[in-house]
Recover the amino acids of this structure.
């Protein structure tokens, strides 16, 4: 797939098969995040990677992810938590750029993953306080988001069918609403 095909076909994946991600491909995905641009090349992103099913189930259970709408994470073969070290933050025009930088980096990982047919889903619905404590993160770290990574299951569950129907990739605003040519 070329870049535009990857962008066009990527969608949030919430149902995963048991197939593990080969280590060499996982490293290509992580490398895609490492190579991202950032304000003043500050590279504030820091990633925590889980690949062991038992640890992923424990993470989901102990941080309350299962009880929320993000229960599907427990079945993923890989979970990556995108943190940012705010000590590396660059502030311009009263804007903190660690969020932007880390989001770019994480999205690069997701697009790289999709090239290999590996799906992901940005997740923000979690308790940062509980998760940060569980992960024993340094105080300067913020958790920007997290995502399961894995090969999509053939058949989508009812939850993801409903979500993609309500707010899936085909529900984008038209260019006429988001772009002004001047
Ligand atoms: C910052 C961010 C946070 C999100 N948080 C969640 C989440 O907690 N749970 C979830 O199921 N999807 C979450 N999503 C996925 C969105 O619902 C999804 O990207 C959107 O509906 C468009 O669908 P698509 O990704 O299939 O194109 C999040 C997406 C982003 C970018």
């Amino acid at each position: 797939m070329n870049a535009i095909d990857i962008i066009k076909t990527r969608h949030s994946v919430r149902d995963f098969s048991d197939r593990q991600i080969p280590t060499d491909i996982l490293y290509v995905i992580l490398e895609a995040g490492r190579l991202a641009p950032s304000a003043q090349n500050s590279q504030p992103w820091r990633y925590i990677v889980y690949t062991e099913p038992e640890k992923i189930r424990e993470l989901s259970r102990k941080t309350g992810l299962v009880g929320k709408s993000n229960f599907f994470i427990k079945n993923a073969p890989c979970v990556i938590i995108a943190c940012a070290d705010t000590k590396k933050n660059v502030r311009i025009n009263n804007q903190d750029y660690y969020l932007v930088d880390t989001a770019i980096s994480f999205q690069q990982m997701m697009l790289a993953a999709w090239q290999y047919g590996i799906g992901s889903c940005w997740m923000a619905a979690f308790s940062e306080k509980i998760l940060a404590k569980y992960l024993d993160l340094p105080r300067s770290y913020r958790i920007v988001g997290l995502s399961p990574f894995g090969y999509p299951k053939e058949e989508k569950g009812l939850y993801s069918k409903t979500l993609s129907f309500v707010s899936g990739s085909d529900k984008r605003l038209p260019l006429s609403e988001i772009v002004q040519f001047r």
Summary: The CA atoms of residues 6 and 115 lie 6 Å apart.
